[in-house]
Design a protein that fits this description.
mainly alpha, 7 helices
Length: about 160
Amino acid sequence: MPKGIPWTNEEEVRLKQLVQDGANLQAIAIALDKSENSIYNKIKRLGLEEGAKRLSPSSFEITLPAELPTSEQALKMLAGALETATQPGLDKTEVFRLQVLATIARAYDRLLANYIHYREIETKLIELEHKYGQLAQKIQNNAPRPNNAQNTQPTTQ
């Protein structure tokens, strides 16, 4: 027995079109005002196997960049999202994408700043360890050594 509000024919047609157009699960959920889970289940029930495989959480992969984007690059993305968001006539899906982009760019900028700060601390610690090692070696080389010859000579009075 289906849960929630039944799907209309128009919603099913729209869903098929969005899947065919390559929209992601979140965008489809927003466009149809339904949960991601109900979207995914409906795709499977309609026999849109390619769409179900493509939108399946297990098939989602993130490609890691070879180099970290700079803070400036993240801020440029955020500025681009802000500029695009001011354009009239954006649909809910595009607004949602821009919100996600802005949130990710802000989080990335904060994380990048922390990463740079920790790397600076790490560099200072390595320098201090090196200086400590040099100082310890210098102290060890300059320490007076016990003279065994003095300890073996008998004392005369």
